[in-house]
Amino acid sequence: MSYLWLLPIGFLVGTFGTLIGAGGGFILIPVLIFLYPEETPDFITSLSLAVVFFNALSGSITYAGMKRIDYKSGFRFALATIPGAILGSLSVSYIPRHLFDGIFGLLMMIMAIYLFSQNNEHKKTEDEKQTGKSVTTRLLTDKEGHIYKFSFNRNYGIIISIFVGYLSSLLGIGGGIIHVPIMVQFLHYPVHIATATSHFILSIMAFTGTATNIISGKFSHGIYRTIYLSIGVLFGAQLGAILSKRIKGNFIIKGLAIALGCAGLRIFLLSVN
After folding, report:
1. 151, β-bridge pairs
2. In the list 8, 25, 269, 272, which could disulfide-bond 52, CB 3.0-4.6 Å?
3. pLDDT tens digit string along 195-211?
4. If residue 153 lies in a helix (H) or strand (E), which one and from where to where?
């Protein structure tokens, strides 16, 4: 059976997923749910996580060239996601397919409503400046000379990352769809730094989840589908990272919210019918 038709799907997943720093899993999971209604959540999530890994790796390489990745915090947050990623990969086996679809669809709609209602441009005044022993300040200058200065509570970031790791592997979405808005709204990251750093975190987290799936025997089929989708996302991720330089952060988040809401509603309705 030819899987060439998966190449353009992978390309679109890679482009949009990298543009918003979400890894593309939130797009790929609905597609896989529609394409393979007979498959188990194990298959859906393991295939998605493997593709997310290649997407995140490709996007991270490009973002690294742009100098937009906060490596120091990215490593810490990535390490915090590993225990949750392993647990999420192991526990998905116990969720029936219709319940999995319903949970995923509902989560997407909640995130869409929240994101669309927020003003996501990074506007931070001196009155908002955080203080405390666990507060870290970052000063980053990207390749084009844009300066980003922001402060955040690293302990909050680590705690949040543990839960993100679990949910991302459980649902096969990679975690960026959750991590990016949290980094922007609660950790006060500029949108473009959040998307780049999230992609870096995703590459480590998705690799952990995929390795767990392989070791546990869940990734027993779907190799060819993974290869074709991954080839598509490798090229799409490069385009998404390039487009991120030309699109304002608020438009990125609003676009993410609209896509989330539409796909989430569709999946949720299918799960209850």
Report:
1. 137
2. 25
3. 889 889 988 888 888 88
4. strand 147-153
Q: Please choose, from the candidates 264, 267, 270, the residue with its C-alpha nearest in 3D space to the C-alpha of residue 109.
A: 264
CB 245 within 8 A of CB 66: yes
- Provide the 3-class DSSP secondary structure of residue 136: strand
Compute the radius of gyration of the chain from its Cα atoms.
Answer: 17
Tokens of 258: 């609209």
- Average pLDDT estimate for 2-15: 87
Q: Check: CB of residue 84 under 8 Å from CB of residue 163.
A: yes
Distance CA 190, CA 135 (A): 16
Distance CA 174, CA 99 (A): 19
Q: DSSP 3-state assignment of 154?
A: helix
3-state secondary structure of 83: helix
SS3 141: strand
